[in-house]
Every structure is written in structure tokens, then in C-alpha cells.
Write a structure and sequence with these properties.
The complex is a heterodimer.
Chain A: H1 2-12, E1 17-20, H2 21-34, E2 40-47, E3 52-60, H3 75-89, H4 96-109, E4 115-118, H5 120-133, E5 136-145, H6 153-158, E6 166-173, E7 176-185, E8 192-195, E9 197-200
Parallel strand pairs in A: 1-3, 1-9, 5-6
Antiparallel strand pairs in A: 2-3, 2-5, 6-7, 7-8
Helix pairs in contact in A: 3-4
Chain B: E1 3-6, E2 20-23, H1 28-38, H2 43-46, E3 57-61, E4 64-65, E5 81-86, E6 88-91
Parallel strand pairs in B: 1-5
Antiparallel strand pairs in B: 1-2, 3-4, 3-5
Classes of the chains: A alpha/beta, B alpha+beta.
């Protein structure tokens, strides 16, 4: 089947992700509105020989709760906590005091300031919506508040679902969107590999050569 | 008759391009077993080498996660719908799992 070969070949020849200006704007607005918390959503569209065409985005609720401590911390404090956490994580000797500290830091870092989670029921609804619109769920977007637009270790451990081909990460610095990057799972699904994001000005989703134009329900 | 199982869009290609299939069975385990027999290519996407559901795979009976029912022994009626849904999570940095 064509789709299967596109999915496989994307890992070998990195295919670009086509994103309309208006959808980029919507992702940036979502990231800004949710700052300093992470935003997340679903990317709908189709695969073709030319690349991945995002035709719609579905902003979703980040189901990670804000902890009582996390919202009070400034971006600088939060960044300091992340750095300290990394240093301690890589320390050669760790005793119970350090583990206790890591657990406490984890509670803060695991808040929506630093994490996102899409509820399965929200994904189920998105899947129904995709079927209704005659497109596929291609993957997901999320924001990294005051953090680079690169997949984190946590992203590699939790976000990499080999079923999906397209992941977008938006960096939001001090409440302002700064960079959007595109990623795909590597062939063995152990890591992310970068994909070029091509922003198009089209208002209506263009039909890429080789893409199905059937918008009816499957 | 049988029970309707909704296939996630990226896995339809392994299920005869169907967005849902009807499978016989009285429990989730029976239905999933029959589904894997019917569409063998689906198995590696849903189960690990030990034959257990992959950690990010959730199964819903209607709108209920079977983890909160009777897991794979959850009974299913013909009027029910099973859905296969992945867990999706991520975030900026740091995981205590690497320290342990």
C-alpha cells in the first residue's frame, strides 16, 4: 500500500512536513496562551510522495496538572531546577538524600510546566474527528516553555509512538514563540530524526501530487 | 454477529484498510486474540515479544479503559465497541527513570 511505503521511506529519505501559515499561527497562539505550561495537540492530514501535509490541527487540553509549587517559580528558577536536576542525575554516587531530593524535584518537573499528556479519551475523539474529515492522525505537537525545540530524554521515553510519523515541537521563550521544529521516529523507533518544516501560505489545504483528494468519510 | 473494534488510523493498513472490524468473542482477551488471528500483521504493533500489550497501548470498552474494569478479562457484549488508543505524553526535560 502506498501509505505504508511512504511511512517506511520517510525514515530513509527525510520527507518535509508541509504546514500552513494559519496552522503555524494557531500552534504559536496555543503555546503563548498556555505559557508557562506546555500546550499539546493533534496534527491531522495525509502522507504523500512529496511529504507530509498537515491539513488541520486539533488543540487539546494538557491533562498534566499544575503542581502547587510549579506555577510560582519564575522561568529562571525553573531552568535552575532543571540544571540542578541534571547534575544530580549524573552524579556518580547517589544516596537516599539525593534520591529524596530527586523525587521532590520530579514532582515539580512532572507538572504541566514541563510535561504534557493527552488523555486517551481525547485521542479517541480526535480519531473520530479525523475519520469524519477523511484524513489521518499524522502525529502531535507540543511546546517547550523556556526550553529548546528539541526532543528531550522524556520525549524519547514517552512520546515516541512508532505508529505516527510527524511530531512538531515549539519553543516558547518568556511567553514568546521562538522556534518550531519537525521530527519523525527513526527506523527502529528508538529516537527522533529531524524533518524539515515547510510553511505554506495556502488558505485551503493544497492537494499534493500523489495524495488522495477524497475528503469523504472512509 | 460480533463486537466492533475500532482500529487507529495508522494501523488500518495492517487490518485490511478497515477503520473497524467485527470480531467474535465474549471477553477483551478473546476478541483481541481473534483479531490477531485475523490480522497477523497487527500483532507486532500492539504486543511485545512476551505477548503482552505494549505499554503505550490502551483498550477502551465504549468510553471506559479496561484497566479500570477487569482488564483483558473484561466481558464484552455485541452492542459494545472496543477501541485501541495509544498513550501520548512528553515534555521538556528530565526523567528520574534514568537515575534509578
Amino acid at each position: 500500500m502506498a501509505t505504508e511505503s511512504f511511512r517506511r521511506s520517510r525514515h530513509l529519505i527525510l520527507m518535509p512536513i508541509f504546514l500552513r501559515q494559519q496552522d503555524l499561527k494557531q500552534i504559536e497562539t496555543h503555546g503563548t496562551e498556555e505559557y508557562p505550561h506546555e500546550c499539546c495537540g493533534v496534527l491531522l492530514g495525509r502522507e504523500s510522495e512529496e511529504g507530509t501535509l498537515v491539513t488541520d490541527i486539533l488543540p487539546l487540553k494538557n491533562s498534566r496538572e499544575a503542581t502547587s509549587d510549579a506555577p510560582k517559580a519564575s522561568p529562571e528558577m525553573f531552568d535552575l531546577l532543571r540544571t540542578a536536576y541534571r547534575l544530580i542525575l549524573h552524579a556518580e554516587k547517589k544516596d537516599n538524600v539525593i534520591y529524596d531530593w530527586l523525587e521532590r524535584a520530579d514532582a515539580i518537573l512532572n507538572s504541566s510546566r514541563n510535561r504534557f499528556r493527552i488523555l486517551p479519551e481525547d485521542l479517541l475523539r480526535s480519531d473520530r474527528e479525523a475519520r469524519k474529515r477523511g484524513v489521518d492522525i499524522l502525529g502531535f505537537y507540543h511546546s517547550h516553555p523556556d526550553h529548546p525545540a528539541r526532543p528531550s530524554q522524556y520525549d524519547r521515553e514517552h512520546l515516541l509512538c512508532p505508529w505516527y510519523t510527524t511530531y512538531l515541537i515549539l519553543a516558547v521563550e518568556n511567553g514568546v514563540p521562538s522556534e518550531l521544529t519537525g521530527w519523525s521516529p527513526s527506523e527502529d523507533a528508538s529516537n527522533f530524526v529531524p524533518s524539515e518544516v515547510i510553511v505554506t501560505a495556502d488558505v485551503e489545504a493544497p492537494a499534493l501530487p500523489g495524495a488522495s483528494n477524497d475528503k469523504g468519510a472512509p | 454477529m460480533g463486537v466492533k473494534v475500532i482500529i487507529p488510523t495508522p494501523l488500518r493498513q495492517y487490518a485490511g484498510k478497515n477503520d473497524s472490524v467485527t470480531v467474535e468473542g465474549r471477553t477483551v482477551a478473546e476478541i483481541m486474540g481473534n483479531l490477531m488471528t485475523q490480522y497477523r500483521d497487527l500483532k507486532k504493533h500492539l504486543y511485545n515479544d512476551d505477548g503482552k500489550l505494549r505499554s503505550f497501548v490502551n483498550i477502551y470498552r465504549n468510553d471506559e479503559d479496561i484497566r479500570y474494569l477487569e482488564r483483558e478479562q473484561t466481558p464484552v457484549k455485541e452492542t459494545d465497541v472496543l477501541s485501541i488508543v495509544p498513550s501520548i505524553a512528553g515534555g521538556a526535560c528530565c526523567s528520574i527513570r534514568a537515575a534509578r
